Amino acid sequence: MVFYVILRVAIPSPLHKLFDYLCPVELEGLAKPGMRIKVPFGSREIIGIVIDTDVHSDYSSKQLKTALMLLDADPVLDATQFWLARWAAHYYFYPEGEALQQALPVLLRKGQEPTFAHATLWRATAHATLSSLATSAKRQRELLELLLRNPQGVSTEAIKIEGFSTPLLKALADKHLAESFASHPRPYQFATGSETILKEAPLTLNEEQASALYSLLNPSHFHTLLLEGITGSGKTEVYLQAIEAILKVGKQALILVPEIGLTPQTLSRFKARFQVPVMALHSGLTDRQRLDAWLMARDGSARILIGTRSAIFTPMKNPGIIIVDEEHDPSFKQQEGFRYHARDLAVLRAKKEDIPLLLTTATPSLESLHNALDGRYQHLHLRQRAGNASAPKFKFLDIRGEALQAGMAPELIHHIRQHLSAQTQVLIFLNRRGFSPSLICHDCGAVNECTRCDARMTLHRSPAHMHCHHCDRQTPIPKRCHQCHSEDLRPSGAGTERTEEQLKSLFPNIPVLRIDRDSTSRKHALENMMKQIHTGQPCIMIGTQMLAKGHHFPRVTLVAVLDADAGLFSADFRGMEKTAQLILQVAGRAGRAELSGEVLLQTHHPDHPMLAALVTQGYEAFAKSELVLRQGAGLPPFHHHALIRAEASRQGWAEAFLRSIREAIETHLSLPPGNHWSGPFPSPMEKRAGLFRSQMLIQGRERRHLHTLLRMIMQEVEHNPMKNKVRWSIDVDPIDS
Ligand code: ADP
Ligand code: ZN
Ligand code: ZN
């Protein structure tokens, strides 16, 4: 009788299971969990991750295929990543093999070596000193400084990542101040030691900041601190100093920012403060750059890692702290496929690595606030604006019965005029891009709708077309009504393009800058607009939530929210929370420096209790009363939710599929305690991109029992005859319905 060693492997496939393979004799004892392994799968060869070695299989050795080869000599996923990705796969009901793949840079998924590209390295020449350059050659001096600090060499790639262009490098080379030398498998490694950490001196913290910093760093073990402070109160300064402290003891910092928050401005603040390598992990990197950044994070040479959601899976050799900036931001939750929440995973990871976790925001998510009120998180406030700035003043503009011009009331236009004549800047927020959200026939009332979605087409003027914002379908602007053939088609309602047009005609001598996805799609468009804003000259910005976050506009004194009611009456129970957060985010752009700010909210409901509480008592009072409502209604964060979504090409299929699962479980099994079902119901937009969608909501008092039920559902789907006719998914802790 021959004994085989059997390997358990996670394979990137939609199947929710692991696969067993016979271990070839020459690999016995070599395979370890977290290594990549090539295996036969169906008719293909595929790269999987070893989960376990020497397991007992339910299959006989005759039924099992033999693994082909190991790709790694050491586990490519370190223990933390391996654990985190698997934990998340289980928690979010996503196939383990896919989850593990997503924790790896693309090139490693494809089987490349986890090594740096062979790079040309640059160093300062033997006689080069800073004094060889004129003080006016600022960038050249900075580049030379970088080279002088790193005598072992810096790769061309790394020089670019640091923000220096090739012509600058060439200029130094032409002056014989820099030279390239033999390639080396490692792009750069920076000198460590506390004297080289800072580039500029930190600010002197005020009392609240100092106490937040102290609480964050003591103990240096795992604990979570929720730092709540209005925009401009100095939260970033607190964490910059926390990072400084952990860099001094040789550790690394990981900062997660919202999708929209990773602006050149954010990065330059880090680069201005620190001399250590700062790695930005964003969608603009090439696969090669991403792998290099990942390798530098893993070997400890990248000291500060800033990235969006997926950066939570970046390895760190010497983890020191994790920071989630704007922790309430919805972009931390992935909305398709692997539906993890990066903030929630950050808590798990910080605990596993036993390091402090900082959550910062002006408007805490109700989840985090609940954790803070229950004492699981420490909760500190920054109540003053740092420096000299003061908090903006709110005012409602009751627009009932007012004649609006492209969404603006006469009184608002009057205010805009006043602020502009005081030589300051104005920011107008309207979370609706395009010219008009609908095109209506004036004779019969028919609306131009998307044929693939239950939604209206948005009218765009520049360039002129109709656009569905849900499925991206685009058509020419119709000349006639599709119902009565009338030619009298009129835009109804205002989007950013229309308001921009109106502002331009009202204020012909003032620059009007529209900032939304359309106007910033061209390269450098946003950058150029930001440059103009930062000249400080009077101007009007009109934009969507792209304007709401992260930017620092010291000359803005008036912020206007054109539609403060959006979201007040939404079917989504989070509508209020989201509206409140967005209003305060936008308001935070006003009066961030010496000038004080004014915030005008246009509303049809100036007496709405939520808006009133928000404006008169502030976010926390609002949030606490929301929590009371949520508790009464058994909603998150008190109870837990999971959504089972399904979609199919024919109406009724998705719903029938979900119903059959529910019925099968209710007939044959007993529900774990504390769970409730509702649905299946048609999704809020039943038809989208040509598919008919349905969903079922599961609510549970305890996660444990909720997960038991979800596992039952997974098993039930396996046997369901309809499963191939629908696309279905589980969303644990969904953030929208
Ligand atoms: P937040 O992250 O809360 O929006 P920031 O940390 O960006 O706040 O601070 C807002 C502004 O105030 C920045 O220009 C920052 O340089 C300045 N600032 C922060 N802390 C201090 C301080 N202790 N003293 C003086 N200025 C400060
Ligand atoms: Zn018509
Ligand atoms: Zn559509």
How would you characterize the overall build of this protein?
Strands 11-12-10-13-14-9-15 form a seven-stranded parallel β-sheet, sandwiched between helices. Strands 16-26-25-17-24-23 form a six-stranded parallel β-sheet, with helices on both faces. Helix content is 30%, strand content 23%. The chain contains 20 helices and 30 strands. It starts with 5 loop residues before the first strand and ends in a 5-residue tail after the last strand. With 737 residues, it is α/β, with parallel strands linked by helices. The model has no long low-confidence stretch (mean pLDDT 90). Helix 7 crosses helix 8 and helix 16 (575-587) runs antiparallel to helix 18. Strand 28 and strand 29 form a beta hairpin. It has five domains: 6-110, 3-Layer(aba) Sandwich (GIY-YIG endonuclease), CATH 3.40.1440.60; 119-183; 207-382, 3-Layer(aba) Sandwich (Rossmann fold); 393-435 and 492-631, P-loop containing nucleotide triphosphate hydrolases (Rossmann fold); 640-732, Alpha-Beta Plaits (2-Layer Sandwich), CATH 3.30.70. One zinc ion (ZN) is lined by residues 441, 443-444, 446, 481, 483-484, 486. It catalyses: ATP + H2O = ADP + phosphate + H(+); Couples ATP hydrolysis with the unwinding of duplex DNA by translocating in the 3'-5' direction. Residues 216-382 form the Helicase ATP-binding domain. GO terms for molecular function: 3'-5' DNA helicase activity; ATP binding; ATP hydrolysis activity; DNA binding; zinc ion binding. This is Replication restart protein PriA.
